[in-house]
Amino acid sequence: MITFELNGKAVQADVSSDTPLLWVIRDHFKLKGSKFGCGMGLCGACSMLVDGQSTRTCILPVAAVANKKITTIEGVGNPEMLSTLQQAWVEASVPQCGYCQSGQLISATALLNSNPSPSSEEIDQAMSGNICRCGTYPRIKQAIQSAAFKSGLANQSGQQPSQNGGVNIFEPALTAKEEMV
Amino acid sequence: MSQHSEGLVSSRRSFLKNSAMLGGGLMIGLPLSACATAGFPKAGDKDFQPDAFLQITPDNQVHFYMPRSEMGQGTYTGLTTLIAEELDVEPAAIHVHHVGPLSDYENPEIGFQATGGSTSMRVSFKPLRQAAANARRAILDAAAQQLNLPIAELTTENAQVFAKGKAFNYGEFVVVAANLGVPDEAPLKRPNEFKYMGKDRPRLDGVAKSTGTAQFGLDVDFEGLHRAVLVRSPVAGGSVKSVDDGSAKTMPGVKKIVTIYNGVAVVAESYWQAKQASLALSIEWNEPEKLASFSSDTGKKWFEDALNSGDFEEAFEDGEGKDGLEKASKVYSAEYWAPYLAHSTMEPMNCAVKIEDGHCDIWVGCQTPDVARGLAARICDLSIDEVTLHSTFLGGGFGRRFNSDFVAEATEIAKASGLAIQLIWSREDDTRHDFYRPASLARFEVGVNKDGMIESWTAQRAGPNIMPYTLDEVVDGKAPGFIPNGLVDWLSKRGYGLFNGLTVDHSSVEGLYEDYDAVNKDVQHVTVDPGLPVGFWRSVGHSFSGFFKEGMMDEVAHGQKQDSVAYRLAHTKNNPKLNGVIKLAAQKSQWGKSLPNNHFHGVACHNSFESSVAQVAEVSVENNEIKIHKITCAVDCGFVVNPDIVKAQMESGIIFALSAALHGEITLKDGKVEQSNFHDYPVLRMAQSPEIEVHIVTSDKDPSGVGEPGVPPVAAAVANAVFAATGKRLRSLPLSLS
């Protein structure tokens, strides 16, 4: 039995300890937003925040996250309450097929949490672990820059951005609707 | 123009043309009346459902049943915008549904329910608008009767009828509308009346795809669904000789181990359990001899020998054909090569199947749902009415999901195991068991007259053909039930003989010869097929012919000491659309003006899927490393429903093509694919993506293809820039200077 925090709630999983976190989240907790892409930590489709770091979970045994804080895309925001980055994603029409975008958003969220106004090169570097086969990179970069700019403005004026219900914008918004299985 | 029209025909349209040779089109293109109502979306008793596409409920909900698959290319937004415009409903207010197979949803150019060939907007532009206009008119007719007002006094806006200053929901009139019937040809809006079409608008699937809530095939789940992993013959087409599953059987979660036509499947409670157990299988294979004898390091000679054999089929001839070369004052010749390529969609292939009480349910994101359903029916020995296919979003297609091999596998496993299963491919499975872009070798001979103008353009291509592999599945999936299985197998295998010797598969030569003015043209083909399955890869034949033809054109221009842009313009007098985009790309990229130090321009252009695209690449070369700084792209794709999506598709095609141009190569050793995952089959990442600028020609012509036409010119534009930088002519993909 492994205990960890999933999107703000303490959970337990009774699975083989070598099972990658990705499959525990998808098959056991039934959260399907995190995707399987390569199984080797090469494409980033499976990215989740582990204690705030964007982490490839297709190769991360669930035993390694005991007592850690896990945030999946479902914990970043939801259609009724988008994070600033998600809002920027929608405005820039970033997604095409959309399959990699959960992972892209996780890496972008980790980036802006640690570096609120990254340079173009810093964005390249932070996003280098996430592949998009549709080639949405120009728009991902544009959306990150736009979100960084907006949150900079919000911070300057001392206001919290409205899209995120007053939650610190780069802290994951906890979703009230979430139900654990 | 006549010589060009042939070349503008898309690959999948020529599929229909080629297929018609099979028994006079008996199998394909005929609507199957037996399934006319199967899968028809269910309407409530009081709903207004004018056709298979639209449904308006009494509580004023508007539903659109989208006849094409959404795989990133933007149909979800684009086709819904057509409905929104003519029905007069805010696009975001429309509920969009993925659909299962239904004859009403067949693609008129392909002959079955296929999403491909960059046809979605082109074939839907008028029919869907007409359907929505008819529905709006029916609502107005009903409102006029119900309100007892002349129709001229009624207007509509966002799913409401306005009469004498009062607003009424469409839903209030649906019962009467359903009784009155639907007119056939309600007038369509004029361009100056467009509210939604022609404007940049956000994607309608943007929120779902930015919150992890969009459902892909992989996300399908229900009580009792097991997961399956299939170990396939490492040489495609092989079968199981013997299997030792002793240790795998006893591993945690394993429910069943079954052998099917191409491998051994482990069915377990979860994917991870199935995957672990699959690694414990020990399998001996029967391998097809021909493919097992093919290795890429020596295999290119197969292609060279074929080109040298002189054993050609004539694919196209105009003017004096090849004889025209004799009169030329100078002949340029060169050979170009392109390797096999994998699609590498981000979502690996997967499919869920449940067979219960004489009914089969399939959950899958695919480009050909009716073929997939037909294959499943054949495997289960059920009629197509006893098979229900549930469609989802596709995590990338690029032509890979035109094939239904993974649906057939999943159905076989469900049938053999007696369990509801979801088959999940690994990335290794995906890289090693694709229907690859065919490897191709081409030789050009181009004759120039004393004025320096091209008079003769000839090309010869050696390589495998896609059509036999596609026909194999499509005939199996679409053949009507009254034909015995044995005969269907026989028919589907005829494709190999037909296209590998008797007639030329158009997708093997498309794009090699059409674009430039020349009085004499000749195209010949010789089939070389080691037996590795090949399929539609974003832009199909144009994916290699765009590189070949545009490299060759650059060689001739350089040989004639002519500017690359000016020489192309001089040879596209009969091709005004292509001429226009060349001019636009040259102007926007500041062709011929000074560039930053050590930066060089290369240009390329190509017609495909009825659209014209020209691109200028800005490139530098340092220590034999090719760095791409910027691509300027001009596209003419007729009237544009959503310019931002066209721009996105150009960006997408360019980045997809750059992955292939710089890195893409599938190689074989003794018939086995050597690459396996993104470390040895790398694709572009953000840091390697250049700045991209897209310019769209304003046009009032009907829309043409967008998803694929951005791909073909890219590799050539880069290679031509590399030539400008280094004097080295790269005639082989992927591009390499070392």
Rg of Cα set of chain B: 27 Å
**Low-confidence stretches of chain B at least 5 residues in length (pLDDT < 50)?**
1-40
Helix content of chain B: 25-40%
Mean pLDDT of chain A: 89
Q: How do the strands of the widest beta sheet of chain A line up side by side?
A: 2-1-5-3-4
Distance between the termini of chain B: 42 Å
* Percent of residues in beta strands of chain B: 15-25%
In DSSP terms, counting alpha (H) and pi (I) runs of 4 or more, how many helices of chain A? 6
Q: Using DSSP, what is the number of strands of chain A?
A: 5
Description:
The complex is a heterodimer of chains A (181) and B (738). Chain A is α+β, with helices and mostly antiparallel strands. Chain A has two domains: 2-76, Ubiquitin-like (UB roll) (Roll); 84-164, Orthogonal Bundle (DNA polymerase, domain 1). Chain A is built from six helices and five strands; from the N terminus they run E-E-H-E-E-E-H-H-H-H-H. Chain A has helices spanning 21-28, 73-76, 84-91, 101-114, 120-126, 137-156, and strands at 2-6, 9-13, 48-50, 53-55, 69-71. Chain A has a five-stranded mixed beta sheet. The radius of gyration of chain A is 16 Å and the shape is globular. Among the domains of chain B are: 31-210, Aldehyde Oxidoreductase, domain 4, CATH 3.30.365; 217-288 and 343-432, Aldehyde oxidase/xanthine dehydrogenase, molybdopterin binding domain (Aldehyde Oxidoreductase, domain 4), CATH 3.30.365.10; 576-738, Aldehyde oxidase/xanthine dehydrogenase, molybdopterin binding domain (Aldehyde Oxidoreductase, domain 4), CATH 3.30.365.10. In chain B, a hairpin with a 5-residue loop joins strand 1 and strand 2 (62-66). Chain B is globular, with a radius of gyration of 27 Å. Chain B is α+β, with helices and mostly antiparallel strands and 738 residues long. Residues 1-40 of chain B have low confidence and may be disordered. In chain B, the strands form seven sheets. A seven-stranded mixed beta sheet of chain B has the order 9-10-7-17-14-15-16. In chain B, strands 12-20-19-18-13 form a five-stranded mixed beta sheet. Chain B contains 21 helices and 26 strands. The two termini of chain B are 42 Å apart. Classes of the chains: A alpha+beta (181), B alpha+beta (738). Chains A and B meet through helix 2, helix 3, helix 4, helix 5 and helix 6 of A and helix 6, helix 8 and helix 20 of B.
